[in-house]
Amino acid sequence: MLTTTLAALCLTVLPPTVDITPAAVDAYVEDYREKTGLPGVAVAITKGTKVIHAAGYGQTASGAPVTADTPMAVASVSKSFTSLAVMQLVEKGAVELDRPVRGYLPEFEMADPRAAAITVRQLLNQTSGMADTAFHEKSLPQPGSLKGAVARLRDAELAAAPGTAFSYHNTNYQVAARMVEVVSGEPFAAYLKGHVFDPLGMRHSSTLDTERDLPDSARGHLTVLGHAFAVPEPPGFGNGSGGVVTSAGDMARWLIAQDEGILSPESVKETRTPSKQNDSYALGWSIGETERGTPVIGHGGDLFTSTAEQLLMPGSGYGIAVMANTGMAFADSSALLDGLVAMIEGGTPEPPSSPYLVTDVVFALLTLATLGLAALGVARSRRWAGRRTGWGRLWVLPCLAPLALCAAIAPIFRVLARGSDIMWIQVGYLYPAFMLWLVTAAAAGVVVTVVRLIR
Q1: Do 103 and 149 touch, CB atoms closer than 8 A?
Q2: Where are the domains of the chain?
């Protein structure tokens, strides 16, 4: 939804907005949940200094009701919090945006000598030169702390010279969060609590290191054949880049604070100024406009089992936050956000859809057919073996093709996704029905191959 660069508000003719009501929000969210099977979601809507609505709907993965105070994961929305922490240190004179990171964080070492020139600003606007193509942050062994996240960079290379290219890369914000720890002398979680969460009254908020630290309320689901299944988040490190857990009520306070003195006007302007390399990404905030042309500032967040969105509409003063407990493959928080924006702009939300339902049915049928063919192959294995001798037995090899595809699925994904890194298990979270069929086909192929060779 964030599509183009933010125009100067004073020169922009803004689309009209309407006063959205809690009852209308409730009706829309519950209708969405009914049509999609979304298990749980939390929504916050503000206007100026007023909370219009903060509420929870449905259930958490553990079956508890989602309320306005239920802590939920916001994933990469966390980058806005890390950016704020850095800007607070900038305002205190402890950090300068355009000085090298290494001057504040001597432990930040990379194998690429160009890393010495990476500035604090380049971390925050993701132009440091670090990228998934050069450093596989997800598929490498995961660190347990911010210090460990920085230490594992010692053998890493850069994909580009600092300041020359944009690449969205979580490690940028992990380095920035570790810098906050070192400069402030406080653990990052303690810093956010003492300097952000507590001052804003965000009593249900915290930041975590790994998926193992997620509370039950922040765990999510995968949806297969239209049904949501509670599953654990796959392994990953997220502090600084995606570790914040918060509630609808707390996000309402956060949205209001963006223009209410949490930073000076000069610092706010810095956080909303994009780089020359990417005119839609600033310092922990994305810059764009709605389909109707309303300038907006926001940031999305995706885990494999939950998603989140935040959005500010400076012209009207509206702020919106959505946290859904289904994963990035289903984009429920983004769809809900789009619908709420449409309502604010006087339009009608698009009807929700289940884009993967037909695909899931197809792969479910393929899985059943694969099991049937495997059973038939085993039953006829003696006949097959009797017809083949010598080199003819090599015709068993095609049965192992699914196993080869299964083993290579993560590298194939990286190529198709233009270098984005991923673990094997994470592919399963993105495409559960497909991976269920592929694993079934791989196992079936191995069984049929072994039985034929034995025969």
Answers
A1: no
A2: 1-354, 357-454
The Cα–Cα gap between 196 and 57 comes to 26
Say if strands 72-73 and 244-246 run parallel, antiparallel, or are unpaired. Answer: antiparallel
Of 274, 296, 288, nearest to 127 (Cα)?
Answer: 274
Structure-token match 């969460």, residue found = 197
Read off the pLDDT of residues 25-38 as tens digits, 9 standing for 90 and up.
999 999 999 999 99
Please determine, for residue 5, whether its predicted confidence score (pLDDT) is greater than 60: no
Q: Which residues lie across from 301 on neighbouring strands?
A: 308
Cβ neighbours of residue 69 under 8 Å, at least 6 residues apart? Answer: 56, 203, 204, 247, 248, 249
What is the C-alpha separation between 203 and 350, in angstroms, rounded? 34
How far is the CA of 100 from the CAs of 42, 170, 325, in angstroms? 39, 19, 38
Top CATH class, 1-354: alpha beta
For residue 3, pLDDT beyond 50: no
% of the chain exceeding 70 in pLDDT: 94
pLDDT tens digits, 345-371: 999 898 887 767 889 999 999 999 999
Q: Are 324 and 38 in contact (CB under 8 A)?
A: yes
For residues 120 and 11, which has the higher predicted lDDT (pLDDT)?
120
Q: Determine the straight-line distance between the first and last CA of the chain, rounded to whole angstroms.
A: 59
Tens-place pLDDT, residues 418-443: 889 999 999 999 999 999 999 999 99
Strands 295-302 and 307-313: antiparallel
- pLDDT of 380 strictly over 90: no
Instruction: Return the closest-CA partner of residue 7 out of 217, 314, 373.
Output: 314
| pLDDT given at position 391 | 59
